From TrEMBL:
Keyword field contains Repeat: yes
Gene3D superfamilies cross-referenced by the UniProt entry: 1.25.40.420, Kelch-type beta propeller, Potassium Channel Kv1.1, Chain A
Ranges where the BTB domain occurs: 43-110
Pathway note: Protein modification; protein ubiquitination
CDD domains reported for this sequence: BACK_KLHL20, BTB_POZ_KLHL20_KLEIP
Organism listed in the record: Larinioides sclopetarius
Sorted UniProt keywords: Actin-binding, Kelch repeat, Repeat, Ubl conjugation pathway
Superkingdom in the source lineage: Eukaryota
SMART domains per the UniProt record, alphabetical: BACK, BTB, Kelch
Keyword Repeat attributed: yes
Protein name in the entry: Kelch-like protein diablo
Amino acid sequence: MGEILHSDLECPPSPARLEYTSDKHPRHTLEAINLLRKHRELCDVVLIVGTRRIFAHRVILSACSPYFHAMFTGELAESRQTEVTIRDIDEHAMELLIDFAYTSHIIVEENNVQVLLPAACLLQMAEIQEVCCEFLKRQLDPSNCLGIRAFADTHSCRELLRIADKFTQHNFQEVMESEEFLLLPVNQLIDIISNDELNVRSEEQVFNAVMSWVKYNITERRQHLPQVLQHVRLPLLSPKFLVGTVGSDLLIKSDEACRDLVDEAKNYLLLPQERPLMQGPRTRPRKPVRRGEVLFAVGGWCSGDAIASVERYDPQTNEWRMAAPMSKRRCGVGVAVLNDLLYAVGGHDGQSYLNSIERYDPQTNQWSCDVAPTSSCRTSVGVAVLDGYLYAVGGQDGVSCLNFVERFDPRTNRWSSVASMGTRRKHLGCAIYNNMIYAVGGRDDTTELSSAERYNPQTNQWQPIVAMTSRRSGVSGANFSLNAALLPRNRKYLIV
């Protein structure tokens, strides 16, 4: 190898240099300037707000507030004054904002946000506006969301207004019972009830809310009823409610414009062949917000054994997450939702058949075992919820398939027997359709089944329906509303 010369390795000399940025300097400088303010040293302006005299430095105020920057750098008289009077602003709010300008610290709370946000808007301090709006978002409740909405609208806080609107739509069933709702001006009431996203179980709730609002001050508000009723989707009401409740209301009967709206709805319901020609805002179904809906996978069988674990899927985030496990391992368990609580009925724990029930509260992420057991052990059971009752249908008890059915009343915590099915079934599909329970397919003690039957709670009877073309065990059932352009409008289908 050739000889390596030292000159090949030497770097040209560079001037000595150290670049340094202090992390402490901004904070220390701000603290020093704030100390000058407190001692009234080098202050070049006094703000007079109400009864308060606030000493400050123009450069600090101008740096933190476009309002003050325009005042002190332009041709306004205040730019030359040592004392400046600020009107239309709360003195306590002004002190908080000046403190923030010197300290970068502020506390927003219930007793100051209503004066702090308007003051921040006036001084154009966008950061404080955002903090106030964030605080109010966290305070949203059915009892105050309308007041917060109006407050946001007054002060042009568009994001807070949007969030408050969404909250009101999603929680309308609780909002309509609040004092704030009854105090709404007519234009805001119309804004709310005309929204397609209003989250209601039926249009009956919207009608009842409107009538409560009118009757809260009937002398002043009855004149607005025709205008407001235009935004209630009367054609979407049930015929019974439309005729028996709406049509018989004295306020509506006494007003010609209201009667015309009722007649329009009657024609829509009575003349289905004419409906394509009658489409409009009042016939358009609402699209309620469903942010809170999730899918649960409960128990089951894994690696040769029953499991107690539970997972929940959130379609908004496209994620599965673990929920609290049940107290018992359960496969072949029946699950259903009643009164916003998830019930796990029976099943098999890998060794024995179960008649115990567990109930899950998604608000607390806890299972409770204080639900009365079924009269018999059941696995591979069908469950359904109808008219406030939980039904356990068929299944097997370890000896044979079952045809008997019982229902649970959460008000009394008791199970009671109802009519038995005509056929013993396990691994059946259960679904609700037109206020009846359908039991589809499954297996008896010897073979898979193609038969199906339905239960009418009004008569306490099961009746067979036409059999499927194929035998099916381990089948699932669902009620599906189809509203496609080429199919009959709002027709419901039972899917198995």
